[in-house]
Structures are given as C-alpha cells and as structure tokens.
Specification:
This protein is mostly helical and 402 residues long. It contains 20 helices and no strands.
Length: 402
C-alpha cells in the first residue's frame, strides 16, 4: 500500500508536468493542472503526517515528528491504563461475567463436541496444546513439576492426615474387608509354606521327639491350631484377636494425630522418601507417560472424546445444559474465580504490559504499530491525494466562473 500511495503521488507529479507543458492548448487542461497540483499538495501533506507518526521525514529532526518513538513510555502506560480500566477492574469483570453463561457453553461443547465451530475450536486448542507440550523441555519441566510437588508435600504434615483417615476408616467399618483379606492372605501363605514350618519345628525338636516321631505330630498340631485360629478370626466379627487388632489400629490412629514423637518419625520418613533418587526417577517416568498420553489425546481429539471418557464428558455436558441450578453454581464459581484473579493479579498483569512495552526499543514499537495499522494509514495518503485534487479542481472552477 505504501508503493501504491507513492506511485499515485508520482503519477500526479508526472501529469502535472505534462499538463503544464500543454496548458495553452485547450482550456480544459487548466482543470487537469489544478487537479494534479492540488493532488500533489494533499498527497505530500498526508505523507508528511503519516511519516511523522513513526519517524522523522527524510531523516530531518523536525519538531513534533517521530511521535510514537518519542512517546513510547507514555504509550506503554496508556495501554496498561486502558487494559486496567476496561478489562481488569473487578467491577467490570463481574459485570461482564454476569451476562455470560459459561456453564451452558461448556455443556454444549461437552455434549456435542463435533458440532461446527466447536469442533474447529477443539481441534485448534488441541493442536496448540500438543505443540506446547512438545516444545517444552521434558526433563526440565518434569523436574520443575516434581520440585513443586515436593515443596507442597514438605509443607503438609502427613501424620495427622493419616491418623484422621485411619480413624474415619475404623469408625465406618471400612477396615474390615481389608482385615479379612489380610487374614486370608496369611492363611494362603501358611498353606504354601507348610513344608518350611515343619522343617523349622523338626530342626528345633530334640532327639527324643524326633526318634519317637512326635515332632511330626507337633508340627501338625501347630499348623492345625493356626488354621483354626485364622478361621475363627475370619468368621467371628467379635473374636478377641480381631478386637485386639482393631484396638491397636485405633491407638495407632490416635498416636499419629497426637503423639509428637511418632509424628516426627513419620515426617522424617516422608522426607527420606521424597529425597530418595528412586522416587524422583519413578516420578519422571510417570510424568513422561502422562505427557505422551496428553500429546496423543491432543493429536487425536476425536479419540479423546470417544469411549467411556467421552460418554462421561457428554453426560456432564447434558447435565450442565439442562440443570439451571448447576449452571448457576458453576457460573458463580467461574465469576468469583475470574474476579479474584483480576483483584489479585490485575495490577501485576498491567505492570507486565507496561514494562514489556517499555523494554522494547523505539524501532520495535514503531515497526509493530506500523505493521498493525500501516495499511489504513497508506489509504489516508491515497485519499489525501484524490481529495486534494478534487478540491483543487473545485477552486479552479470557481475562480473561472467568478
């Protein structure tokens, strides 16, 4: 567009020279002279105005030219202020969010993810996610996530949580199936290792017992007694041994929550586990599998919305579309979340915009703004050339008639 505007100005200059040469041949040529002369004036004036926005015309430091480079910092502050006043004020955010039904839109997307523009949005977002995951350094990102999880785990005291969870499990009776499974496991283990038990009893029996064969009877009695004891504990919920185990578990739950010495031991064990290189290597393997799974899902979004996962998401979408109460709750949560982000981080976002623009050099700011609006500015030059020519013809005609 700059070439077109400049070519039009040059064409007016050439026409002006030709028309001046043949001005006396016919009175109509005077109108052409007036048009081209005024068009050159209008085109040059608008060229100066457009150029003065971004740089000094012809490199001459005329006052009040190169306006954008000279006011880069003020432009940065103005942009930041505009963003703050029109987008990141909690009142503005809340008012705009109040008119949006995000829950219904999410429900439509989840229930019918392959409909028209939603499919294009989903595919575009999925492709962007895949490219982002592939572009990031896997090891560095995995280490950062692992370090973040480790920091969070270090802040959490595990012992009271374990104690509360165990206490709730015992109170609700959810430990009984686990205890039954443990008893069955002990029975199966004992059955598989009967020969080892007999060998131990035989090796510890004295010579008299071995000579009389009583060691074999003793081994059978021991095994039968153990099997009988396990069976009784398994079928009798009120068995004393089961009660003893439950009391021990209840004491352990209490100590985990209230015994300082035990809590310190649990915390020390937690720190040792977190510091173990094997745990770090395990986490990196888990992270890589998760990352590759996310990339595969993003590369094939249709597969991600298929199967049981897709049906679950579709069911959630239908619930969001049909339940006004659920929509209200989700929209209220989203509105409060966005307003909270604007309240807490709005100033930081504005400061980031301002500081980013301030760090740009003048040429970068000029090039980016000119690329954004330069085409329309060149139309100003074209319009100035043509409008100037029309004004010149009008003035010439009036002077002839008067």
């Amino acid at each position: 567009m700059r070439i077109v505007a400049t070519a039009l100005l040059v064409a007016m200059a050439v026409l002006f020279l030709v028309a001046r040469r043949f001005e006396g041949v016919h009175p109509a040529i005077g109108y052409l002279v007036a048009f081209t002369e005024a068009a050159m004036v209008g085109g040059l004036a608008d060229w100066f105005a457009v150029t003065a926005l971004f740089r000094h015309p012809l490199g001459v430091p005329i006052p009040h030219t190169a306006i954008i480079p000279a006011n880069k910092d003020r432009i940065a502050d103005t942009m930041a202020g505009f963003l703050r006043d029109n987008f990141l004020t909690p009142t503005v955010v809340a008012r705009r969010m109040r008119d949006m039904n995000l829950a219904r839109a999410a429900g439509d997307f989840l229930a019918e993810p392959r409909v028209g523009g939603q499919s294009r949005i989903r595919e575009g977002a999925a492709g962007l996610l895949a490219e982002l995951l592939e572009s990031l350094d896997p090891e560095r990102l995995g280490n950062q996530v692992r370090a973040g999880l480790a920091r969070q785990a270090e802040r959490i005291e595990v012992s009271p949580l374990l104690g509360s969870a165990l206490e709730a499990t015992i109170a609700e009776g959810r430990h009984r199936p686990l205890l039954d499974s443990l008893i069955r496991w002990i029975g199966h283990t004992l059955e598989k290792n009967e020969d080892m038990v007999r060998a131990v009893i035989h090796s510890r029996a004295n010579a008299v017992l071995r000579w009389t064969g009583l060691d074999e009877r003793l081994a059978n009695s021991v095994l039968d007694g153990l099997y009988r004891l396990l069976a009784e504990v398994l079928v009798d919920p009120e068995h004393p041994l089961r009660k003893t185990i439950e009391e021990s578990l209840a004491k352990l739950a209490h100590d985990l929550a209230h015994d300082p010495e035990l809590r310190q031991k649990v915390e020390a064990a937690k720190r040792e586990i977190l510091a173990n290189p094997a745990v770090g290597a395990w986490w990196m393997g888990v992270w890589e599998k998760l990352r590759h799974s996310l990339i595969d899902m993003a590369r094939d979004p249709n597969a991600a919305f298929a199967g049981q996962l897709g049906e679950s998401l579709a069911e959630l979408g239908r619930a969001l579309r049909q339940d006004p109460a659920l929509q209200w709750q989700v929209n209220r949560f989203a509105r409060r979340t966005v307003v909270g982000v604007a309240t807490r981080y709005g100033g930081q976002i504005v400061q980031l915009v301002s500081e980013t623009v301030r760090r740009w050099d003048a040429r970068t700011v000029t090039d980016r703004i000119e690329r954004a609006v330069g085409r329309d500015l060149q139309f100003i030059r074209i319009n100035g050339t043509l409008v100037g020519g029309l004004v010149g013809v009008t003035i010439h005609a009036l002077s002839q008639w008067l």
